[in-house]
Design the sequence.
């Protein structure tokens, strides 16, 4: 049982070939590119969703920050679709791997920080010291603010990894418990099954929310630094 | 119209059974040929089920079902230990 729980998180290789690349690229097939003025239903629904999300998310930025629209929209589409596809039975979710989430979080965060330092150096440095602190607390607070700045990418990556992994693990465990309870006491199995259904609904929500949160935070860091 | 069409240009359904091995060997197995085959297959599916006036949920759900099947085959080796048996 123990080995089985975590086997689904292992990097998928088929006969020694790393097909994890194929699995990461699979969601791109589900988003065809629009060619015409009026497209088929799939593309129209996706276009409507992307316009809704981009207007809501990029409204707070000035023109400099809005150059990041393409990056942030593709980020939220990628994380959302990958998380949702991971809810299908037996599938592998790339966002459960910390390596991938760090690879997404660190460059994006670093991009916003370096942009801030390059264009508005004084304001970016001023972020390290909140307004109105008593003078004798200044050294301490600068250290704390520096630490909190450097923890941002790690928090982004670990938040996404932990949420998705924990959700998948819980579903495995509760599903296994339901199966095991069926022969002992069907009524308890029914309660456990209802818990599983509620958990699945939660997982659908979490999949999309995590994508949103990741992107929102990156855009917040961008807003600070533009 | 010529009564004998050259083997290379026949479609699969028109190839006689005896000619099948030579027909297979005549296909283009270069990387460009394989990429072309994937592209043709993709557009065949896309134009039949998705790029239509009233596409339905069946178009994507067939793709997702194939994805689930693919992942099942991929993890069969670990899954076969979880069958219901008296002695594992």
Sequence:
């Amino acid at each position: 049982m123990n080995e089985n729980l975590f086997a689904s998180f292992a990097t998928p290789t088929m006969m020694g070939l790393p097909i994890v690349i194929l699995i990461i690229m699979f969601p791109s097939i589900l988003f065809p590119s629009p060619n015409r003025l009026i497209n088929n239903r799939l593309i129209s629904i996706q276009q409507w969703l992307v316009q809704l999300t981009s207007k809501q998310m990029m409204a707070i930025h000035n023109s400099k920050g809005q150059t990041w629209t393409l990056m942030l929209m593709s980020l939220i589409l990628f994380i959302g679709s990958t998380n949702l596809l991971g809810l299908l039975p037996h599938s592998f979710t790339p966002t459960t791997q910390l390596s991938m989430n760090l690879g997404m979080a660190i460059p994006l965060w670093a991009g916003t920080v370096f942009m801030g330092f390059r264009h508005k150096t004084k304001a970016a440095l001023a972020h390290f010291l909140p307004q109105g602190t008593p003078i004798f607390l200044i050294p301490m607070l600068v250290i704390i603010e520096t630490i909190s700045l450097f923890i941002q990418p790690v928090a982004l990556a670990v938040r996404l990894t932990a949420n998705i992994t924990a959700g998948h693990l819980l579903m495995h465990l509760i599903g296994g418990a339901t199966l095991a309870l069926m022969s002992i006491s069907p009524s308890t199995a029914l309660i456990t099954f209802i818990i599983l259904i509620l958990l699945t609904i939660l997982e659908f929500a979490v999949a999309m929310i995590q994508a949103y949160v990741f992107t929102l935070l990156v855009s917040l860091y961008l807003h600070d630094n533009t | 119209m010529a009564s004998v069409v050259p083997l290379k240009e026949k479609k699969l359904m028109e190839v006689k059974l005896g000619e099948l091995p030579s027909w297979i060997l005549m296909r283009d197995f270069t990387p460009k040929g394989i990429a072309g085959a994937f592209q043709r297959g993709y557009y065949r599916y896309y134009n039949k089920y998705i790029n239509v006036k009233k596409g339905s949920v069946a178009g994507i759900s067939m793709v997702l079902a194939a994805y689930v099947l693919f992942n099942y085959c991929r993890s069969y080796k670990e899954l076969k230990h979880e069958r219901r048996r008296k002695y594992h």
